[in-house]
Amino acid sequence: MDHPWLMRWLAQRLVLLQNSSQKLHDHSENGDEIMTASAFGSRIRGAIFIVAIASFAPLASAEPAVKDIIKTYGDLAAAKYGDALAKARDLDKAIDSFIAAPSADTLKAARAAWKASRDPYMQTEGFRFGNKIVDDWEGNVNAWPLDEGLIDYVDTASYGEKKDENPLYAANIIANPSLQLGANKLDAKTIDKDVIASLNSALDVEANVGTGYHAIEFLLWGQDLNGTNAGAGNRPATDYDVKACTGGNCERRRAYLKSASQLLIDDLTTMVETWKVGGPARKAITDQNDNQQLQVILTGLGSLSYGELAGERMKLGVLLHDPEEEHDCFSDNTHNSHYYDQVGMISIWNGNYEGATPVKGASVAELARAKNPEAAKRVDDAMATALAKLKAIKDKADSGDMAYDQMLAAGNDAGNKMILDAVDALVAQARAIEGVVAALKLQIKIEGSDSLDNPSAVGAAE
Fold first, then answer.
1. Euclidean distance between CA atoms 252 and 240, whole angstroms
2. DSSP label at 360?
3. Of the candidates 215, 343, 189, 339, which has an alpha carbon nearest to the alpha carbon of residue 267?
4. What is the largest CA-CA distance in the chain?
């Protein structure tokens, strides 16, 4: 705020100093002259100028208003989903180029575009769990794991031909113009967005996934048949070459890939619109009271830290030593997906995002620091530790020395430890978030995972 009385006083002092021409003599015991009035006045004017400039700035509030925190939160979501949409459009262009001229080079470019599209999307995952609108939508774009035999051909020696809990386990819609969905028959003579969307959770089986990032990933890489040895999926470009077709049904596979890419754009566009100012996602939060609004943010951060990332995506894979539990299992991109999940959580906590549309504003971290600095510092420290552990995994995989699925292997003590160290750090992060929840006198429920809460049950189930 402005302080008129202070500004008037400062102006008067400056005038007096500017009109002064008398020398000040400050003598030492030896009588040496130290400073003139003009030099002394210059220093004073500099100091007064700094104070005057500072007086124009708003006085810092002891703590940010909840409405400002929620505005930043909504701005973060809009910016991140916007960046994810932009990268999905880049992916779609790369897919167009690949389909137009299938080759090792155009396939490589499409795969690179897919990986680039994952980074901004993973930074949005902290908006899950607390926002029903996001949770109801998320399965369209990032459902995992999936039974890929529903979509296309698979290696039956490793994949098998049936699974009791999923009648569509090896249905291969690319090879079949119709599909029996219980009492109904799906007409799939033409593969389009509606057809592939109808596969999601078909027959109430969550592993039936027809759309989203992982369906596209499978279509670009194919199965990773290397187990916990080095190497990702290696689908040939000729699977899309109608003149030299491998794998059969190249036209239908091309149609599926393009439909999945277009549907990803459609779904991300929906989420961008949902988070725009005045959109339904923002309104759903602001219709709640202050405590409930803060609980939305902290539920998302706590649940992603604990049950989802530490539990289902990381600890479970180590318990089972199963590369099928790797999040980006066809492309071996899991190390990046996990890392950017954490980058996104730190961004939401601090109200800061350095994307194509940068965002910086009031945050739940600022509120926590004002209310209980010790509890806030525990979250800051825990987030930094978790980021470092996930960065170590990312660096190891990026170096080519050890991919994430290799880290999962039984007997790979060093790789297992890298993952479990990150799991421990994420659990500590969740506990620190619970500490902030208590400090702010809030209540949340963090998503759990048997792999963390009851690991013996995981072994028994298997």
1. 9
2. E
3. 215
4. 108
